[in-house]
């Protein structure tokens, strides 16, 4: 027997059997078990696993396979599913089960679909802000939305008598959260230092969302110190006039009450006098009658 014959009689080794492994997930710690989505948005659930021989992946929703949607379809890829145009009915428990001849593993997502509402924005200080010249003024933009917005601040000078939907974007951009590299800068706050009359005008907070853009505007009025003093004096004079009027009315009221009291006293005395006189007349008549009889 030759060497070749001996070699040919050795059974072949199956390389697949040597490397056969049970399924396992890739980097499971970086996967969020709770997935939050919003109506009309898209969500993707991954099932990143590896095994040898090739594995089989099954998906379940609330224990039922295959998952079903009331509206829309589920798009399957090799190791994930995609749900477009989410609705509230898509909320639930989604499980991917990975199996081969060496075993199986599974992973469960909790999907929460929240109702999408239009973004709202307002400036906390109100629609009109007054500041003294050479002082500071701060605007605080409050955005209520289901996603983090990009904030821009725009300035419209006093030539704009008002701002509305047609000219909101015509202002000068004075602060942009996208262009700022400092993560400690709060985009919602706009602080003006040492304001002058040149700073007077409209300030607009522009909140850019994924599918919408919302605005809020406030007018900054800058006044001089003497104007403030004049206004304080006017207010004090108005308050003094009000106090004088109140005191005068109270005095008149007391005098009226005193006159009414005197009148009532006179009526009482006059009534008593009439009663006494009537009693005296009655007594005289009775004496006359007795004298006659």
TrEMBL record:
SUPFAM superfamilies the record matches: Immunoglobulin
Name of the protein: Fibroblast growth factor receptor 1-like isoform X1
Keyword set, alphabetical order: Disulfide bond, Glycoprotein, Immunoglobulin domain, Membrane, Receptor, Repeat, Signal, Transmembrane, Transmembrane helix
Organism whose genome encodes this protein: Aphis craccivora (Cowpea aphid)
Entry's transmembrane regions: 225-247
Topological category with respect to the lipid bilayer: Single-pass membrane protein
Residues covered by the Ig-like domain: 23-112, 118-221
Listed GO CC annotations: membrane
Keyword Repeat: yes
Protein's cellular compartments: Membrane
């Amino acid at each position: 027997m030759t060497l070749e014959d001996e070699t040919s009689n050795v059974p072949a080794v199956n390389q697949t059997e040597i490397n056969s492994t049970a399924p396992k997930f890739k980097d499971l710690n970086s996967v969020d078990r709770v997935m939050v989505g919003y109506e009309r948005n898209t969500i993707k659930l991954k099932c990143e696993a590896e095994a040898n021989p090739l594995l089989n992946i099954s998906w379940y929703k609330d224990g039922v396979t295959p998952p079903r949607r009331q509206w829309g379809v589920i798009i399957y890829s090799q190791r994930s599913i995609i749900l477009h145009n989410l609705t509230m009915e898509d909320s639930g428990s989604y499980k991917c089960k990975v199996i081969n001849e060496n075993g199986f593993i599974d992973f469960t997502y909790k999907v929460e679909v929240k109702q999408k509402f239009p973004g709202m924005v307002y400036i906390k200080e109100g629609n009109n802000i007054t500041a003294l010249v050479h002082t500071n003024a701060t605007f605080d933009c409050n955005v209520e939305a289901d996603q983090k917005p990009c904030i821009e601040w725009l300035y419209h000078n006093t030539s704009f008598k008002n701002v509305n939907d047609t000219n909101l974007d015509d202002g000068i951009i004075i602060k942009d959260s996208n262009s700022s590299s400092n993560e400690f800068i709060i985009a919602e706050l706009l602080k003006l230092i040492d304001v002058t009359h040149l700073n007077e005008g409209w300030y607009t907070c522009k909140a850019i969302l994924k599918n919408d853009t919302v605005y809020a505007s406030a007018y900054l009025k800058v006044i001089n110190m003497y104007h403030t003093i004049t206004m304080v004096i006017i207010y004090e004079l108005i308050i003094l006039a009000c106090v004088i009027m109140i005191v005068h009315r109270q005095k008149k009221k007391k005098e009226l009450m005193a006159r009414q009291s005197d009148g009532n006293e006179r009526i009482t005395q006059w009534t008593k006098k009439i009663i006494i006189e009537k009693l005296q007349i009655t007594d005289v008549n009775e004496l006359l009658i007795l004298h006659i009889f």
